[in-house]
Request: fold
Amino acid sequence: MYTKLPYLILGFHGCSKETCQKIFHENESLKSGTNSYDWLGHGVYFWENNYIRAEEWAKNHYGNDFGVIGTVIDLGYCLNLSDTHSINILERGYKTLISRLGENIPKNRGKKGHDILLRDLDCAVIQQIHVYSQEEDIKPFDSVRGLFIEGDPVYHGSGFFNRTHIQICVCNPNCIKGYFSPLNADKKYALP
Reply:
């Protein structure tokens, strides 16, 4: 009953300048990723309301040829991994994956400290949820939303980490209501 978040969010997608050109000037759409290690399954990824992280990611991947695309997103029917109902679905997805693949399930890998960078298992579990929904003719999820605690403690003894973020994976492209080119703040005025 509460899987629809009742608001639009801003998402930021780190990419190359070439991708920005295609989106803004050639009227293309962002393409869905299908990597086996994607954190939230297959779809188009956004940093929720976090331009800085999108920019950092893009610079690390594209150097000076980076770009950032802003989006307005309606999450629709969302597998929101910050709520108990969705965590229960995730647990059932894992059990279904085990029942189908046995011990041959993928493993998360690429640990850096406590961060897991390549999430093959997590991706497979979420994809299993999508497959199950399709097989059982259950309403499919439009998006997946997850909170990721990453990086180093902000200060000694902190429970907050400097790279913590919310990631959005849009499965249904109709959830993307529009693209925009992010602006720099006008320093003569306060931010509302």
Q: What stands out?
A: Residues 9-88+141-180 form one domain.
